[in-house]
Each structure stands twice: as C-alpha cells, then as structure tokens.
Amino acid sequence: MLSQLFILSSKGDLLIHRDFRGGSPVPVPEFFRRGVEQPPPFQSLGGLHFAHVRHGGLFFGASTEGDASPFTIIEFLNRLVTLLRDFCGPLSEKSLGMNLALVGELLEELVDFGHIQTTTPEVLRSLVQSEPEVPKPFSLLDLGSVGLFGAETQQSRVAPGAAAARPLPPARGDQPPRPELFVDVLERLSVVIAANGSPLKVEVQGEIRLKSFLPPGTELRIGLTEEFCVGKSELRGYGTPVRVDECSFHSSVSLAEFGSGRVLSLRPEPGEMTLMQYQVQDEIPAPLPFRLFPTARAQPPNRIHLYLKLRCDLPPKSQAINVCLQLPVPKGVSSLSQELSSPDQSAELDLGSRSIRWEIPKIQGGSQLSALFKLDLPSLGRAWRLELGPAHASFELPGLSCSGLRVRFLRLLPGTAPRWVRYRSCSEHYVLRL
Amino acid sequence: MPYLGGEEAQRELRRALSNPHVQADPARYRGAVLRVIRLMSQGADVSGLFPEMVKAGAVADVVQKKLVSFYVRAQAPRQPQLALLAVNSLRKDCAHPSPAVRGLALRTMCGLRMPGIQEYLQQPLVNGLRDKASYVRRVAVLGCAKMVKLQGDCEVDGALVNELYSLLRDQDPIVVVNCLRALEEILKKEGGVVINKPIAHHLLNRMPDLDQWGQSEVLTFLLRYKPRSEDELFDILNLLDGYLKSSSPSVVMAATKLFLVLAREYPDVQADVLVRVKGPLLSACTSESRELCFTALCHVRQILRSLPGHFSSHYKKFFCSYSEPHYIKCQKMEVLCELVNDENVQQVLEELKGYCTDVSEELAQGAIFAIANIARTYTEQCVGILTELLGLQQEHITSAVVRAFRDLAWLCPQCTDAVCQALPGCEDTIQDSEGKQALIWLLGTHGEKIPNAPYVLEDFVESVKSESFPAVKMELLTALLRLFLARPAECQDMLGRLLYYCIEEEQDMAVRDRGLFYYRLLQSGVEEVRRVLCSPKSDPSMGLLGDQSKQPVNAWASEFNTLATIYGRERWALATAQQPVEPSHSCPPCADSSSRDTESLVSEGNKEVPEVHPDTPMSEGNKELLKAHPDAGSLSLIPDVSLTAEQFEKTWLSLDTCCQLSLPWCGPVHADTIQTALRVVHIQTIAMSKAGAQPWKAYLSAQDDSGCLFLTELLLEAADSELQVSVKQNEAKPEALQSFISALRTVLEAVAGLES
C-alpha cells in the first residue's frame, strides 16, 4: 500500500505529488533536495519508508507505511515511468509540466487509496482522455527533413530516432493514428579482461523491446534466428548457433511455434513492453570488441609514461561510437600531456574521479588507435602501479547484437504497417585490467 | 511556498471562470480550470475559487470533471461548508449513464476528507457496490474502506462487511483484490480479513485472471492461510508453481515467500524453491534498473545467510561495475565476501583488490574490510594483498589496513608474524583516531616481535601534547605499559614521561584517571601489573562467535520480500521503533504508564508481584534434554525483539504473573555473565540493577516465532540465597511457557554453577 507518490526534478523541485491516504502527511524528505549524489533507493523517515527510482534525472518516488513488498514498489515505479513515457512522450521536467492534466488523470486511474489498480496501457487509454503535448525543441535542423515537393527522400525511409519516443495517440483522438512498430534488440555487455588478455568474465544481458503504435488486436509474429538455442546442450540448424543460457518471455507471448520455428506470436498492446529477456554467459560468437595494450614506465623522479594501444576487434564494416576509456591514475597526478593518434579524439585528466578520460567519437572495426600520456606527480611511490587501472571502457555498437541474435521477420495480421528493427549493443561494464 | 501575486491571479481566474463566453467554449473553459490546478500545485492559495470550480464540474467534459474533482478533494478539508455544495452535484453524477462519470463522482465523494460526509456517502456506496459496471464497483469497494477510515472509532457495519465478503466472488478480478484490501483495512482491529478454506481456494482459482499487482497481493494474503492437511498443502504448492516463473519479479518473490512459509516444515521443499528462484533473482541483480538490482542484492544476502554456497558459482555477477552507485557496490562487496569458497577465492580477491584504490575513500575502505573478512578463512593470501596495499602510503588505505590487521591478529593468531613484519613505516601515514589506536594496540601487544616498536611509540609519546583524540592517549598508555613488561629497558624512561604528562597536564578526565590507575598499579609491583595486563593476545573463538553461523531458513522466511530485508535487522528495528507502537489487543495500555520510566518499574514492580508459588520442578529427563538444546521443544525464540523499556513496562504492568519459581543462588551476581548467557538463548535483558545492589533485579524479554511475548523479572533479596523468577506471558500458551521456563532455568542454573 502506497501512502504518497511524488515526482521530483533533478534539482529537487516537487513536480507532482499525490497523498493517497490523507491524515498527517510526512513531507517529501529533504535528502532529495540536498542534492545527495546517490541516495539509496530506500530510506525511512518518521515511520514512513520512501522508495524511489531515477530516470533521466527525475526522481519517481513513493512512500509506504512498511507493509509493502519492496519488489512491488520498485517494479511499480519503473512501470509508472514506462507508462508516463508512453502517454507523454520523452520525459522531462518540461513535458511533465505541459501534461499536468494527463498525468493527473493517469495517476487517478493507476492508484486509488494507495492501492495499485491497473497498469495496462490499453485499459488506461480508454479511461484517460487528455491529449498529450510534446515540447518541441526549436531547431533549424528540422527544416532539413522537409522533402522537396513532397518527394520521398532517402531520409524519410529511415526511422528517425525520435519517432519511437512519441506518445501514444489518445483513444478518441481526431487525428488518424499512424500505425508503426518498433522492435529493438538491446544488449548490454559485461566484460572483465585480465591483464594477459584472457577474458575473465563475459556476460550479455539482452532484451527485445517492443514499442507498438498498431491498432489493438493486430497479431504480430516475430521470427528469430533459426539457430537460436537455449541452454548449453541444445543444437539447432546448420549455421553458427546463437546460444543463450537463460531466456524468459513476457506473459502475453505465445510460444506455440517457438519450439519448431523460433517464432514468437502475440497481440501487442499499444506502448512499450519487454518481449523477451535473455542472458549469455562466458561464450559469445564474435571476438570481444576491444583490447587494450598498455605500457607504463616510470621516469624518475616524478613522471610516468603511459603508452596505450586500443584495438577494435569488430568486423570491418561495423563501428563503435561514443567510446570513452577511463583509466584511474595514481593519487597526486597533477598534470597530463598527451599525444593522440587523430585530432577528433580528446583526452583530459578528470581530478574528480582521479582518472584519464580518453574520448573517441568513432572507431571503425579492425582499426587500432594509440595514445601517449605523460603524467606528472609530486613523487613516485613504490606502489604506483597498483593505483594505475583497471581501465573502464564505455561504448555503443549500433546495428550489432553481440549474441548474434537477429530478427528474421516481422509479420502482421491483418494488414501491414511500417516496421522497424533496430539493434544496439552497449557496454554496461567493460573492464580491462592492466 | 507563498505564491506572489496570488490575489491578482485568483481574481483574474474567477473572472474567466464565470465569463459566459468562456463557459460556452469547452476548450477555453478547460484551459481556465487547468490554470487553477497549475496554480494549486505550485502552492498558491486558490481556495477562493471554490464555488466557481464546483460549477465548472457540472459540465459534460469528463477531463474537466476530473480536474475539478482533484481540486475539490484537495480543498474540501479547508472549507467543509462549501464542500457540501459539491456533494449535491456529485450525487447527481452518481446516477449518470456513463460508468466513468459514476465512478469518478463516487471516488470524489469518498475522497472528501471532512467530517459529516458519511451520511451522504452511504446510499451511493451501496448502489455503487451493486453497479453493473465493474469500474464503479472497484471504486465503491475501496470507497467503503475510505468511509470506515473517516469514521474512526465507530462500530463497523456488519452488513457492509458481509456485502464485501460476498463481492470476493465478483466477476472482475480487480474488484476481488480491492475487496481483500478494503476488508483488510476495515477489519484491521480484528486482525484483518479472514482467509478460510473456501476463500483461499477461491482466490487460488482466480489467480490466473489477475494482473501482476493483484497476483503478488493475493499471494501475500494467502500467507495467512494454514492448510489443514499435507495433501492440501502440496496441492496448493503445485497450483502456485507457475508463479515462480512469472516474468514479474514481484510475483516471483511473493510466490517464493509463500512457498517458504507454507513449507516451513519441509526443508527440502524450501531448498528446492530457493534453487528455482536463483535465476529470477540473478537476472534482477543484473537488471538495468539500479533500484531493482539493489533490492535483489539485499535478498541474495538474505538467502546466503542460510545457504552460504548458494550463489558461489555465479560470483562473477557480483563484480562491481564502474558506473554503479555506491549503494550497489557496497552490497555487492558484502555478497562477494559471503559467497567466497576454495574455487573462486583467487578471482574474488583479485577483483576486490581493484576496488581498494577506488577514488572514493568509503568504498576503498569497504573493500579492505571485505578482504579482511575473507582473511578469517583464507588468511595467507589476504594478508599478502593487504601488505601490498600499505605500499601505496595513503592515509585512508593504511588506516583501514592496520585496523584490519588488528582484528586479524586477535582472531587468527597464525598471521601475527606476517602482520608484525608489515607494520614498520605505517606510523608516518596514519592520521585518524581509529587507525592510530589500532597501530598502537598492535605495537603494544605484539611489541616483542617488532624491533622498532618502542621507538615508534616514543614518537607518539613525544607528540602526545598535540594529540587530539583521548581514545588514542588511552590506547597509548595501555600499550606502553604492556610493552614495558616485555622490553623494560627501552620503555621505562618514556613510560615515566607519559605517566607524568597524563597525571599532571592532561585535561581529559578519563585519560588522567587511567594514568593514575596505572601509576598506582605500578606501585604494587611488576608481578601485579603482569597479572592485570597480560591477558591473552588473541582469541580465535571470537571469530566463530562473530561469524553468524548458518541461520535456518525459517528464521527469515517471514521477512522475505519485505522492507526488513532491505534495511537489515538492526536498521529495520530502528526504523520501526520511531513509529507509535500500537498496543497489542491482549494488553490494554495502562493509564499513565508512559510517563514512568524503567527506573520506576524497578521500584514499583515488586508491589504488584503476587506471592511466590514455586512451580513444580520439571522431570529430570526433560531437563537434561533441554540442557543439550536450550531452546528445543516446541519453542523457538526469535533473536531480535525490538522491545523498548517503555513498551516492556507497559506490557509488564498490564499482565498477570503466569508462573513463579525460585532457584538456589549464592554469592553476588555478575550481570555481564547472565546477560551474555541469556543472549545465547535469545532472551534479551531490558533493565538490570547495578551489581551489588540490594535487592538486585533484572527484567528480561523474549518472543517466540508466533509472536508470544515472555516477560520475566529476576529478583535477588539481600540475605536470600534464592533467586525469585516471575514470568508473564501475553498469550495463554501453557506449553510454550513451560519450554520457556525450562530454557531460562537451564541458563540460570548454568550461570549459578559457574559463579559458585
């Protein structure tokens, strides 16, 4: 049972607040406003327990008297975020402010007297009647997407990144709905590579996420790679197996054809949902995307020379973007001089986290980058090597799924509509020990 | 927050709201209403617009009705008179053809938190419960709970309760769950909604229709049901099997808890369930949502307490990621400590070592203590790593390592030599009080193995004037005196100087007294000093005590999937202690007991204790059995009862003595011994007289797993050689009482045996 629900901006301003139970309200705790960097998700104050989740800089919180299940609260708050995104579009302080009536209506139907009622988007859509307003950032670049004389340019055939983030049309809206379907295969990589280059831990957390703008009742069939196997022992097809260790599906997915043809079928509800989650451990078909070859030498009395070579082992046609390598350096390092292999890279010494941040906007598969850093520090301790590293890389791999999972086809019944499949892998945790 | 220009804005809005042109245009009308709401949510006072807003609620536009409803509910408590205005139009809306409007009106009416609204509520609520639209019934059911909450202490209407019980059979799943929730609140005083066999089976059959929230809630309600037979129990478990595989973590956890609780007598079933929940828990631990991950980690730790090896093969999942927030990293380090075994210790230590140089000092020290924790089992490897860390010569790292070393030297004597070799040089880096104390303790206790120990201590003695922590000075006194016994020639001079300083110049009384004490002790001869100071230098058994050995699953099954697991026992007890504790039904609170404190209980308690009736002694055989297992039998006392002295006193005074007995006792009482001995069998000491006080008294409390409290008074009259024991119980359970008394008796006899 929830007592309160609140949404705070990143600065701690109360954007939305509901007190479900009445009585003596305990104010939303100060710790959100004090700008604590990472408040723990559960805190107790005055006999109430405050739980929160963070999404895009906003705090979504709830308080309870203590009888509630922590999993339920967190799951509900996460669900609330997804719903708000479905209904209002991308979430920000501004969009919540503009959609005050809509958010109000939504909360009214979600929770009554502190009890969760329903979170099904379709039901909510029939109950909520306000229309969403999406804040439009003014940008001259938008003019670029206007086609000449309405001709269908190449640009309009590529799904714009923002299209999937638009809010669901209201159930009784006057504008004709634009049926569309987005299927995202998202994978998060957790890797630890030992100093000698052997992988210590390789793990992929993957999910297939669906965002549907289709009319309700449309049946969707998704064909996955035929060689998709669950568990260590299963063998299917003739190509390279796509092996996952564990796999779970949303409750609405019918698995009747999964055994024979790796086909999932369902009637997607409008809005966002996670269709399938899977995990791969220890073995992935492709080589790991990055290797680091470091050489560190002390130049007494007070200098360390650090030569880094970063090799990208992706296939030559793929690339990694927004690569950032963070390398902790010994305490007391005061300045950094650098020689990088190309001008679009940058490196800086981040004193807050006591590390070098080496940023590379783009690396093509198969290429190799190098950098030479000279670190100055007041004195060289005897254990300076201990403090160097391990390096942490963060990156995105557009168009790639590390597990090798592909979507073979997306079929709709009845009718047809634009369908988009997007792949994206990103690093959750990519550690290169030195 | 006062809103500047509120008056002006309010006036303008009133003009807009009552403008017929605006009223004629739905979009503009709604816009004006929305502006009012916006002002209200910014904290402005918009109460003056009440009549206009009520009028605005009487339009066809549902969105506008909702906005007005929100406004009316927020403003009603401030202006009950005007709110009655709204009630009329709401009652009209309750008969509207659209279910959405009916539901909204009913919800608004029930949400008006003002006195006297109940009489208007009754009829619409009864109609609502029988409405043909499920949406309205959902609202009406919860409306009943709201109404009862408003009424406060009044008698609960039996007809209403019956109606709600019969609605448990409603077609609509949300109505069913709402009924449970409403009954739970309405019948709170009687212990909540009753789940008997037909209801339990009905709920089990309805489970597939419910959504995840409903399922996890019903699973929680089912915890209350006790199956009659083994067959029924296993039928239920079979029926619920699928929910352990649900894609929603909250359903999986609720189901797990139900399994653990229902199968409390079947450890095999419990173990099987914990194996099956491993997958979902681990995937929650690696979830993208940090908060979910944290929640899952807390539960992993809980499970590890009973099954230490449970997650050992998945240790890599608990490696910290660079970008994770601190609260997750700390949890993960704790988990890593607990699941370490022969196979993974090398990798885990390698990983933890990486955290020790983290830029956050808190985290770095946490990692060092984690390694120290593992060192109790894998001493050699860990001491190697810790020694290596000293080379960094960083203040917070050296301090944490030395503190870890002190604990290790105490717990694992075999590593003392390695520790002693690593120490030289540390004194230059350590600045904080804790670290200095640890270093000085090590130098004093193991000084004979460290060649330069006297010279390091001498530096501390030289700078004692500028030392700001009294605790460090105390430690220095003890350490130097100890070292003096081992290496008198090197220490005599500086010991003299230190004692002189402490006695003549020191401002802190505790340090001065300690100095004086040692000075006088020295006067009585070296042999005496040796006798007093040369205590053992290590105590490996402490490690076994501190390391909580495997807890049975049943000890925490009832806490699983609650906030208690998140906070941990101690913090949970603290957090709930702030709440006003409701007196349990069996003991009505005393009139003015809250104003009295424990001290008064000690003086007044004995007036109310009736005469002693020695209990019939237990049979010898039974007693022998209990000696082997102090809390065996039907009784299992829970280890942490959070009963404050005030609560104890309140309950004590409201109960009658169930049992009195006297035990032979001779000599004085050693309070610490008794307290420790009682703690072993989970009996807490609430208050105790000072040693040697006459008469001597102690108050004890304990609670068994069914919640039954045992309160005990021990009384030792001066000349008496008998210890009088009186026990009170808050529920009449003769067998439990018997077992409790025999456990208590065993402990007290054991202590008496020790002391005589």
Automatic annotation (TrEMBL), chain B:
Any one GO molecular-function label of the UniProt entry: clathrin binding
This protein's encoding gene: AP4B1
Any one GO cellular component localisation term in the record: cytoplasmic side of trans-Golgi network transport vesicle membrane
Chief location: Golgi
Annotated Pfam families: Adaptin_N, B2-adapt-app_C
Biased composition (Basic and acidic residues): 594-614
UniProt entry tagged with the keyword Oxidoreductase: no
Localization (cell): Golgi apparatus, trans-Golgi network membrane
Designated name of the protein: AP complex subunit beta
GO biological process, one term: protein localization to somatodendritic compartment
Species for this entry: Taeniopygia guttata
The Beta-adaptin appendage C-terminal subdomain domain, residue ranges: 637-749
Function, as annotated: Component of the adaptor protein complex 4 (AP-4). Adaptor protein complexes are vesicle coat components involved both in vesicle formation and cargo selection. They control the vesicular transport of proteins in different trafficking pathways. AP-4 forms a non clathrin-associated coat on vesicles departing the trans-Golgi network (TGN) and may be involved in the targeting of proteins from the trans-Golgi network (TGN) to the endosomal-lysosomal system.
Subunit structure: Adaptor protein complex 4 (AP-4) is a heterotetramer composed of two large adaptins (epsilon-type subunit AP4E1 and beta-type subunit AP4B1), a medium adaptin (mu-type subunit AP4M1) and a small adaptin (sigma-type AP4S1). Interacts with TEPSIN; this interaction requires the presence of a functional AP-4 complex. Interacts with GRIA2; probably indirect it mediates the somatodendritic localization of GRIA2 in neurons.
Region annotation (Disordered) ranges: 579-619
Lipid bilayer topology: Peripheral membrane protein
InterPro entries: AP_beta (IPR026739), AP_complex_bsu_1_2_4 (IPR016342), ARM-like (IPR011989), ARM-type_fold (IPR016024), B-adaptin_app_sub_C (IPR015151), Clathrin/coatomer_adapt-like_N (IPR002553), TBP_dom_sf (IPR012295)
Family: Belongs to the adaptor complexes large subunit family.
Keyword list, A-Z: Golgi apparatus, Membrane, Protein transport, Transport
